[in-house]
Design goal:
Strand order of the largest sheet of chain B: 8-9-10-11-12-14-13
Strand content of chain B: 15-25%
CATH class of chain A: Mainly Alpha
Number of strands of chain A: 0
Shape of chain B: globular
Structural class of chain A: mainly alpha
Largest sheet of chain B: 7 strands, mixed
Distance between the termini of chain A: 7 Å
Radius of gyration of chain B: 26 Å
CATH class of the largest domain in chain B: Alpha Beta
CATH superfamily of the largest domain in chain B: Gcn5-related N-acetyltransferase (GNAT)
Oligomer: heterodimer
Distance between the termini of chain B: 40 Å
Radius of gyration of chain A: 11 Å
Strand content of chain A: under 5%
CATH superfamily of chain A: ACP-like
CATH topology of chain A: Non-ribosomal Peptide Synthetase Peptidyl Carrier Protein, Chain A
Helix content of chain A: 55-70%
Largest interface: A-B, 11 and 11 residues
Number of helices of chain A: 4
Number of domains of chain A: 1
CATH architecture of the largest domain in chain B: 3-Layer(aba) Sandwich
Order of helices and strands of chain A: HHHH
């Protein structure tokens, strides 16, 4: 899957889970940039992404991401 | 825990078998699984002893959904969350169920269709020997087990009603003659079998029982009937029964429709009381004047404080009564004991009502708040709707005023706090002769010295 396609699908998931249609994600977006993205919604996002892409993240992966780009990297690798 | 005045909901423990002992763990106190189960059992015992403690049964939820669904190890490792995101809505629902029951929102009545709901087949076509019920014919077992469960609900205090499109005689036949019927006619408070629509019949049942639509559950195998009821009586809960009758029970277990915040030993007699009420209604028609009818009932009431024996029932009434309830204050058993003990600040009365048809048990609760040495405030006045129009209001007020008079009070203040359900007592105080208080909405005052004892046909026991 193209990286831009993954980004667009992840953006949809963020908008849906965080209930905000205005959210725009880039590779460099971090939790600080999105108001609704807190520790609790983080878990909801991870679970929603796992379901959508039919993958399962490991705990080290979940802890490793510094920004959306690194999250996309893991998704790309796992769903390849 | 003892010091907390409010109500507490404790989530019990989803069991974890760490298999450190293998299955020998069931045989030794040293294992995790042994301790989890013991902990949950002791929590139940603790809750049984403490009226203000309620258990949210996460352990049963996990039994239903499975450990792998309820627990997500990577989420737990990174966040310490012991529940998976997927189980959260179900856990939340269970907690809301308890909170709602505590607030008086729970089901009181189960209305049942007959053909293909309580037995397999159509009684009018198949005849009594061919309906499926019990261990003989077809899938009869599914229906017998459903009936056993419904019987349990009845013993617990849920009122049962039948609503069936049938001739009445045909519909009653299995109840009277089929050896495998678990439910008997004596279990059914209201039996309606005719060719009217189910909507009309449920309206009719509601009128006889005098309870809200939102406290009714209607089960019917026919999706068409279910939808008509849903559309016309949206407050009635209509579970979407699965197609296969074998699935009915597990489906209904999972819906957790009959949450409750209290249970008292008198609950199992509730059906009898509603049946007796139906007799009274027909007796009433024989009399031209109200007083003649009331006299003929030979009513007696015993007036008591909140004794220990009565505490569970009193707390339950404060939680259940919605219609004839002036301020709708909910009390737990612990609150009730505290009010009774507080003789300097409060005076409490409970009333029973018995007549020649039967005993209604305790049906009225009064809490008086001693505001000043001269002013009594009616904190709680509630009555069971089963005893409306018997002069019980007058009897109760006579008792309150007599107490006020004997203890030097000059005035009694009553308040009506409107809710969605208690409009029937909106004019309660003015109709008893209380006068409006200037500048205060929904409060009325009665001067003790102006009071004339009201005529009643109830004797004090």
């Amino acid at each position: 899957m193209e990286r831009t396609e993954i980004l667009s699908q992840v953006t949809d998931i963020f908008r849906d889970v965080l209930d905000n249609e205005e959210i725009v994600l880039t590779e460099n977006t971090t939790a600080n940039d999105v108001e609704e993205w807190d520790s609790l919604s983080h878990i909801q996002l991870i679970v929603a992404i796992e379901k959508h892409f039919k993958i399962k993240f490991t705990s080290p992966e979940i802890l490793s991401w510094k920004n959306v780009g690194e999250l996309l990297e893991t998704i790309a690798k796992k769903s390849a | 825990m003892q010091e907390i005045n409010g109500k507490t909901i404790i989530c019990n423990y989803p069991e974890i078998d760490d298999s450190a002992f293998g299955q020998y763990g069931n045989k030794t106190e040293n294992s995790a699984i042994f301790q989890f189960r013991k902990l949950n059992f002791l929590l139940d015992e603790f809750a049984a002893q403490n009226p203000n403690v309620f258990i949210c049964d996460l352990s049963s939820l996990q039994n239903k959904f499975g450990r792998d669904f309820c627990f997500d190890s990577s989420v737990y490792t990174s966040t310490e969350m012991v529940l998976s995101v997927d189980i959260l809505p179900f856990a939340a629902q269970r907690i809301v169920d308890i909170a709602a029951a505590l607030k008086g929102k729970f089901k009181k009545c189960l209305i049942m269709d007959l053909d293909n709901t309580l037995w397999g087949g159509v009684i009018g076509d198949d005849g009594i020997e061919n309906i499926q019920l019990g261990h003989g014919l077809g899938i009869g077992k599914a229906f017998s087990e459903l009936q056993l469960w419904i019987k349990q609900l009845k013993e617990r205090g849920i009122i049962l009603a039948v609503c069936s499109k049938n001739n009445e005689e045909t519909a009653k036949d299995p109840f009277e003659k089929h050896p495998e019927m678990v439910l008997k006619l004596s279990d059914i408070a209201v039996f309606v079998a005719n060719w009217n629509t189910k909507v009309e019949n449920i309206m009719n049942i509601r009128q006889i029982l005098n309870i809200g639509y939102d406290s009714m559950v209607f089960i019917d195998d026919n999706p068409f009937e279910r939808n008509i009821v849903r559309e016309n009586l949206p407050e009635v809960t209509v579970p979407e029964l699965p197609e296969d009758p074998a699935d009915y029970l597990e489906f209904l277990y999972n819906e957790n429709l009959f949450e409750t915040a209290s249970f008292s030993s008198g609950d199992k007699d509730r059906t009898k009381q509603y049946q007796v009420e139906a007799q009274r209604v027909s007796e009433r028609k024989k009399f031209d004047d109200e007083n003649g009818f009331l006299k003929s009932l030979n009513m007696v009431s015993s007036v008591d404080g909140f004794t220990k024996f009565l505490t569970p029932r009193i707390a339950q009434l404060t939680q259940r009564s919605n219609q004839f309830n002036l301020r709708t204050i909910r009390y737990t058993e612990e609150d009730i004991s505290r009010l009774e003990a507080d003789t300097n600040g409060h005076k409490c009365f409970s009333f029973t009502l018995e007549d020649r048809f039967g005993d209604n048990g305790m049906i009225c609760v009064i809490v008086l708040d001693k505001k000043t040495p001269e002013t009594l405030f009616i904190d709680t006045w509630l009555m069971s709707c089963r005893v409306l129009k018997r002069g019980m209001e007058n009897f109760t007020l006579n008792t309150i005023v007599r107490y006020a008079c004997q203890n030097g009070y000059k005035e009694i203040i009553g308040e009506y706090i409107p809710t969605l359900k208690n409009a029937m007592v909106k004019e309660h105080y003015p109709s008893l002769g209380f006068k409006p208080i200037k500048g205060v909405d929904n409060q009325w005052v009665l001067k003790v010295e102006d009071y004339q004892e009201k005529q009643v046909f109830i004797k004090e026991k």
